[in-house]
User: Fold these one by one.
Assistant:
Number 1:
Amino acid sequence: MFRKLPLVLAVVVILAGCKKIDPKIYSQDGPQTDGDMLIESTIGDAKNMNPALVDEVTGGDIDDLVFNGLARFNERLEAAPCLAEKWNISKDGKIITYFLRKGVKFHDGVEFTADDVLFTYKVYTDPTVNTPYGSRYQDIKTVEIMGTYEVKVTYKKPFASAITSTFDYILPKHLLEGKDINKGDFNRHPVGTGPYRFVEWKTDQKIVLEANPDYWEGKPRIKKFVMRIVPDQATEFLELLNGGIDAIGAWTHGTLTPEQFSRQLDTPKFKDYYNSYKTNELVYSYIGWNELSPLFNDKKVRQALTMSIDRQTILQNVIYGLGSICSGPFAAHPWAVNPKVSPLPFDVERAKKLFKQAGWKPGKDGILHKTIKGKDAPFKFTLMTNQGNVPREREATIVQQQLKEVGIQVEIQIVEWTTFISQYVNKKKFDAILLGWSLTPDLDADLYGNWHSSQTGEHQYNFISYKNKTVDRLLVECRRTLDLKKRQKMYWQMHSILADEQPYTFLFMPKTLVAIHKRFKGYQIDEAGIRVRPMVGTEKWYVPSTQQKYQP
Amino acid sequence: MRKFLIRRLLMMVPLLLGISILSFLIMHLAPGDPATLNAAMRSNIDPSYIEKLQVFYGLKDPLYLQYWHWLERFCTFDFGDSFRDSRPVLIVIAERIPATVYLSGLSLILLFVIAVPLGVGAAYYQNRFFDRFVSVFTFVGYSAPHYWVALMLMLLFGVNWGILPISGMADTNLDYLPWYSRGGDYLAHLILPLAVTTYGSLASVSRYARTSMLEVIRQDYIRTARAKGLSEFQVIFNHALRNALIPIVTLFGLFLPSVLGGAVIIETIFSWPGMGRLFWESIVSHNYPVVMGVGIILAFFTLLGNFLADIGYALLDPRVRYD
Amino acid sequence: MTNKPSTVKGSRLSTFFKRDPLIFWGGAVVSILVITALTAQWIAPYDPLLQVLNDRLLPPSLHHWMGTDQFGRDVFSRLLYGSRISLAVGFVAVSIFILIGTTVGAVAGYYGGWVDGLLMRLVDVVLCIPTFLLILMVIAFVGPSILNIMVVIGLTAWTDVARLVRGEFLSLKEREFIQAAKLIGMRDSRLIWKHMLPNAMGPVLVAATLGVGTAILLESSLSYLGLGVQPPTASWGNMLMEGKEHLTDAWWLVTFPGLAVFFTVLGYNLLGEGLRDMLDPRLKGSGRNG
């Protein structure tokens, strides 16, 4: 051990040489100069940085900083201009003409034009390209270049989320034309028009971006962005405490765990250096009742099940109350949530009455019984969830206990993810499953996929086989309506139908828990609103010159 | 001798083949496939994407055909492309070698430098205080779960005392540090993972060295040497130690492949971009080509290590004869 | 502490322990452990699975000697019940690998020739991938369950024992009493079972003792990667794993299971080393003081 002593001492000296800043200074502002670096971390490395191919979070987070789309979301989750200054939509909704921003340059200095838009369309619709997003472009008939800065997109039929779900990342034609998109160099050296440009990627170590001085919204103040890959969550938190990373969930999808947020932030070490926020993301968890099962094909039974489950207790116990109960598949979408619908109450008495009305009577064994097809059947079922997700396993245990109170015997089965999907979900061989959805801001694809009666095939998302004619009609109609006001009315109607029919028991929407070093200024996080992805305004973040930590 | 060596070398071919079939079967017969793992249940992803990936990865072919394709390419030293990022497996693996060898290699050297003297000393002072001390000292290192020790050290040295960095190979800001503190920065990042890996393995090597030394010390020629009136120093260093080291050298050869295999847990906990982590993450994500690649390469080096150990043994110990 | 013949008069056992503190301390730890594991249901103050949500993460106190975990379960009770799982993993895995290793080693050593060649190549195959990586690979694909973990550790760790037993058999084969037995036409099986195996059991016993410790360590390492015994069943490994999320705010969650693993493995190793020294005649009466 002694042989290492001099080394340790040397390190101490080196580290002592760094200037220590009194944390009090962070509560003040200062001159807004360029510089410093923001370090975040992720558990898993990116696979690929080509936005047409990315199918995981880390690559997507990087793409959000490196690329721009023609449009993006504002904080109300409506379409706002980005690389397109504006667009015209024809009366019948079939023709969209984009007018592109002039003078925008890719990171290699080449100007962005209508050619790139057409090229992007070609990549996404090329059957040899392994893109997960091709279906978004399937209704497009033609994409025509009307001038250097004007593109006309003609649809076979109107497509509600045309503006926001297509052309969300523009690829540079001059770098990719004629290349193998699936394997090219570009996938590890992305070039876009976004606020940050790619510098280096050391696999499983870090991804480094730097400010794009020519960014069309203005040169970003923070000089560099680094995504470190830290595969262990405990290590990640220690790194945060130690200053090895500056933020969790600032520009990326990272989040603290509810345990960390509610118990481990209350130390001077943390409070002096970090601000923490609870923000809303578009996610919710639910129990899906298989409608093909004779147990769950009755609406009253599903309502009663929901009313027997005390979601508030689950929320408190599983994620320390860091979330809110939801009433439908709309998470926190500001315009889609019907303000008149509220979650079914936790009411065991009412639940028991409903069970009785549906023919379920308590037997001698304390379990509900009903005669189905001439046979006496006890109310017994298996609740499944995937392995490796501790909160879900806990939710399942609490649900099990609570349903026991009303006379339902629940068995919990926890299955490895791919087996869960291929053996049970795809084959619809389950009674009830406990899972979560992560939604897109636009909603159309999510809702259509989850609730339309045609979407029950293998790997499709209406695996509970939900069927409702009105919902089907509304979904199709929504899909063809570009006017958000009209869509809103239909979503409200859908919301009340789903809340009434309870095909899922909607549990809750967990918060995303963010920590950001106090030296960073120039941003606002609206805890009541929604985190918009891609992040808007990263170029406005800064660190006052007196508080800067790194000199990159 | 030559005949024996050639036979051993030729023997490697069916062994490697067997291992490749075995690992191929384990992976493919297990439930789940990489495409489902990546893309199932993600509402922003086309459900048809899963099938697209399965075709792209070649998972739709019958198993024997998949293996045959793999073998065909393998014969031209093409390990295929990683499912993760479509890069050639060989490049993906080569990328990991520096970090792995840097940590595991240094650890191996340090391990022998510390453990062999400890073991030899323990044998010399058999059943006396030093022997007991070495036993307890080395077993303490072996008995504590690595990641538990690692976390405790990170908490102490990193968070509480703030004298050592917690994870990674170097500071994120390394390129902007003055040249003279870069070396120190690398060293500072190395200390904790190196200490944990090395300390944990001291027990086996020092025990081995002790046994080997004990066997030598009771040999007749040592008694003869003593009887001749040679100084204790000469007896131990010139006669005993030299012979005791022979099996230890072999042990070193046998340990070499584990250097390449890296250390899964230590690499994960210290965010070290090594081979163990690559292997582990590939297993978890069902990245078959990489798992096969790492497996075959490790197997090859293990066989080679055994082979070299045999040769070393033969060269160092004239009594050994192979025929 | 010398190995001069003891002058202490008294029971043989006490002399034995005085002479070998490794065996004494190792044996003490191991016996305490086995006893607590067997009597867990009487000692444990609480149900190890009982979640009391109002009592989450309480620090150690008179009511909860080792505090409570994130689900309000009593850590001390879980530790006691966990010792059963950890020991069971150790014992079963070791039994499996001793069984396989001894059989393979005995057959290879006794028959020699092509049987020996074939079996030793099998050993080579298993040894080709570092044991831990091999275990990872197999468990990741067959899925983690207590049984799988025991079996996989058992199936991958037998090679050392096989080599040991083979070595013993090779040298035993040359001994006169075995030669003699062969000459009078004793059956192979009888020869192996009655005469050779008992003589080769010493090193196997040592390997078994050390193996229990190693298996317990392996289970905790597997838990770190999520491949250990699955919750809610308590094992020391998964307790450590769950506790690591609370490193900075609930020290007791990682400290007690960590210490439990540490002392247990240490106990088994010291015992094993002590036995080795005692059983191996080559290591006795040598050295400076011999």
Number 2:
Amino acid sequence: MSEELKILFAGAMGAGKTTAIRAISEIPPISTEASNSDRAECDKEETTVAMDYGEITLATGEKLRLYGAPGQPRFQFMWPILAAGALGAVVLIDNSRADPLGDLELYLNAFRPLADAGAAVVGIGRMDSFPRPTLEAYMERLAKLDVVMPVIPADVRRRDDVLQILEVLLQQIEAMWAHDETVSGDANPGHRSPEAIS
Amino acid sequence: MDITEHALTYGFHGVAEAEQALLQGMIRRISRRLPGPVTHVSTHHAQLVFLDDAAPPLIGSDARLVRLVRNPEGRQSPGALRMPPHVTELLDIFSGSFGGGSHERVRCGAMQSLVRSLHDLFRTRDTPQALLEGDGASLILYPSDRQFSWAGTQHNKQLLSEIFGAQRPPRLDLRALGAQELDACGERHGIEPLLWHMGLAHAHCGLLPWVGRDDVLRMRAWPYLAGQGPAAAMRLATTLRARPRSVAGLADAACVPETDAVAFANAALLCGFVVAVAPTDPLALPGGRKPEDAPMKVSGFARLPGILGAIRDALGVRS
């Protein structure tokens, strides 16, 4: 198989993308951190300016690549490049930021194809300290945007929380695959067949 | 017939009028010692049927049959009465019926009525406040804001948590809220967790009364996954997220018992995370959006289950 297997982590600066990748990667994450020149956006010393990279080796010998997209909107042009061919995306939202629902909408628009295909999950961080917006508010916003996707409170410093997000993502992809397989078994010439896409 | 008003119904099949009169007299005698009212109805609607030798041809599948036996001495004289059960046996028969399915049916009638009222209340959002009370607990509802607050003490919260935690139908009543009660209310919370647990509890009484078994469930927002085993809940949610299905189809596709699917569907429907549409409705069809760069296309359709399994193995998670 020539195509790489990758999962993308997206979200605003400080949402925890690097931390999430560190929690599950079997290699120390390779980060392109630089001094943060945008302290108004996020008050931390360093931030990712291109991307983070981690990986997990599968039993087949293949690598599952974990990419963290840079959070600043000025790097938005990179998001579709990183998303192309991704198995799925994890969108991390920091509930302590000024407009978390606005962040959700921004990243949802950027990764809409993956969300529509059931290959995206939203993880909400810092809900303990910043309970608003509530989960209901996120669900309501997504419903207005005509998107159904999992929204899960998560502390990405905890490996178990990251694993839970990934498990939801994998189950969604699996359920969509089962649905597609059923449909392709029907007389539906317009639907893609395994031969057509592998 | 409104089963919330009739705790237990009984009927006769092939029993002579004189025997019926005798039995009814005995039933009147014991009725004061029964936990609820008993009512004589036609055989087809009865929960408890007293019968002669021949079983009734048409009977509710869950009706309890009580066969009357002939007094051995009566065999000697034509036209003798069949012997009704002794009064203590009759009391046992009725008490046993109260303790079994019919009692549950009565509770389910009350539960269905309550759930329907709550559903209407929060769907229309017209009523500013209402009080929900019973089983020693009470809480205040704010339908226009989709919120509730615990009335009075923390004890209420524990009590209701236990009721819903045990997933048993609560004996709760809905009524208008007095001004004094409104003053005593505490912090407000979103109504969804409460409705979610009420939906799970309703699974003992089947699907929500306004939802048909053939109706197709369509997810409109990702639901809570509380109160059920996390693995089953996750499978139900992701399966329904993939495409609309009937409750039986959902159970089948998610490989869970149908009662789990009913509980999930009830909870998600009550909260509005899922809507039920008629099978003929265009909304019952699977969504049409299928972007070209969907992950299945990229990763190889046929290999996907193997890849996902390998990822799970590497991460140490099990589906």
